[in-house]
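Hi! If you just cloned this repository, the fastest way to understand the data is to look at a raw example. We've pasted two of them here, unedited. The first protein comes first, obviously.
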Amino acid sequence: MKRSILCLLGTFLSMLVHGQEISDQVFITKILDANTERFSKAAREIWENPELGFLEYTSSKILVDELTTSGFDVETDIAGMPTAFVATYSTGEGPVIGFLAEYDALPGMSQDAVPYRSVIVEGGSGHGCGHNLFGTAVVASGTALKEWIDANNIKATIKIFGTPAEESGGGKVYMARDGIFNGVDAVINWHPSDRNAANAASCNAVIGGRFKFHGETAHAAASPQRGRSALDAVEAMNMMVNMMREHVDQESRIHYIISSGGLAPNVVPDYAEVQYMIRHPDIVELKDMWERIGKAAEGAAMGTGTRVDIELASGLYGLLPNETLAKVMHKNLSLLGGVEYDEEEMEFGREIQKTYNSKNIPPLESAKKVQPYQLTFFPASTDVGDVSYVVPTVGLGTATWVPGTAAHTWQAVAADGMSIGFKGMMLAAKTMALTGKELILNPLLIKEATNEFKERLGDLKYEALVGDKKVPLDYNVKN
């Protein structure tokens, strides 16, 4: 009899909790549905004003204004970056949940929101990675979560981090280095995609830099013995590094370009420059590769009678996955489902897919689906990686692009500026808000995520790969 009563009581309590979960979900999604036009307008405005990294003055102001209107306290000019910000809303002691916002564009990606190639500004920038949607969805999510906190008298803190220059410059690195994410229990983010997925993801760490060789000019025919060719040094270095490829881990990636090789063939060049970018999943292995490449540069300089200056340009950690958080996010994304197109959007999608040069094109209907959960790896890099080594971090992707679209393409820019992009953006906002809500209500989840974070981190202590390098605010400034 007692066991029956306890079972009934347990069932009743479970029903109450489940009922509250449904009520919270309805509350949050209704707020976001009611504000779809507002946030679509903001995303479109950022799309119409594409700005490169560290130059996102208009874009960051649009988001800051939205947050201020919603009742957040906003600080700008964070970690030496004028376009960085931290927006905070707090109702007292409780969980601290952070969200990452991006809003920088890509050079040379100008494109109208139409399903055929149509450049708006020749050589102009464009949102080929959907960061106009990225930052806006985060602001929308934080706004809805704030309303839910107020309506339920909950003690918690929301922090929205405006992070410049993800594409070029790595703004989050300087924020992580300066301790901006200290005190945050968990960080939530997302990225535009051609599919819906919330996985525990890892990726490559990356280091990039310039090797500047200095020699002596001379007439290449009349007095070549007087010259010391900086270009010879670049070529000698490249040859040594290319031989090194046989003797590095197979997961390594080594890319380079000769960015300066002289001005005239009959003049021995006294200056030449090569830019390198290297990647590897393991940060220790990556550092060792960079040291070896540096020695190749020094050897090339010694052998050619030149000298070399090595300039570290950037360094990003890979993502540290967190399955505890990812499974929560996957559950919420699955509850919401994918993105459904109307007939006009279907026609847009059909026309976009005609422009692909791939044979394996997923059906448009795949935008409705949520991909199965998995532990994944992607070979590219992101400055979110540095954040993930400071605080437990989770992310997702939603179908803001027509299925089959690759990032950094005009097809992505086109969808980012119209309703297909906006629908995916609002799905991301809902998923992030529901995930934030669940973490706030269940501190044990945060504890579990923190324990997993510490276990994966092991003995590694986070130190920014850029060292004490100043923020390269002029990275995208043309001289």
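Ok, and the second one:
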Amino acid sequence: MPSTEAVRVGHLDTGVDPALASRVERFRTVDRDGLDSRDTVPSDPHGHGTVTAELIIGAAPDAVLCSASVIEDGNIVARILLGLDWLAACGVGVVCLPLGLPSRTPALRSAVRALVERDVVMVAPIGNGGAGAACAPGCYPEVLSVGASRADGRVAAFSGSAHGEDGGCVGPDVVTQGVEVPVGGRLSSGTSAAAAQVAGVVAALRRAVPHASAGAVRRALALSAAEPAADQRHRVRFGTVRVDAALAELARHPSGGEHLATGEVGFVDPRLVALLGRTAPEARVDAVLELTDDGAAERVARGRRAVRLGIRPIVVLRDRAEAVGALLDDPALIMASAADVDRTLWLR
């Protein structure tokens, strides 16, 4: 029997309009520097988050949102990391990340993996860069990546894609309509609009088959997708989402799923190195570090303006450039990233 309990959907975007407050169980504001966050009333100065929230709710009328404002300004990487850490404690079964970073950002992938390991389905757009272009986190194998199709089912020209060494499409996993989608009395286009709808579908599937694993949900959507036309196979891995077919597949096979890929190790963000090279030793620098264990993370954070994540031994910190540079030689360091990116896209 379907569950009577609402599925919580994590939603990290620009926020949510107060008019949707009745559908938001918790709302979090992450400060610009990514070093502080707090529960607040819903707000959305940009509007993008309100659109994606409405699309999630439209596809999953019984879902409730745990939403946080993490973009468009400030230290975007740090803000998203704090948002994911907060969502891990909210009991979400689905997370929608309708955003895109132009760089691979291993610390973000590590945090995404941490939620997947907690049986959460992570959904993100592949990006709006067209064939051969893909954004993070939509390019991560741990994420259910979503592209946009037109009303006739063809993949939209702007919808991104990623390809393996053999030339085969490895992302997006699925597509759904992302061109002129009706929402809130207007039309919205973009892969984030498509991803929000798929996140709602995932929430509906998890409510209908509450004992199904996150991996089984992903597998059901993949196996039930309508195969693309021959000339579209380089644009989508599995095909177009079919909700009823996915539900039938999930009911038959509610367990199992994909094995997690291995995360990146030993990465030092060249932008962080460049930043340290042009910054005076005593000037403050923001950085994100992942360490080997919680003890090492606590040691690095101690005495600094810093936040430790609970889902991974990741530290978001602000310290003197000289001190941050010294941490890059710490034997417990796994990876180091800048706290911001050169530019971040909220995928319209």
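That's it. A detail worth noticing about the second one: Confidence is low (pLDDT under 50) at residues 343-348.
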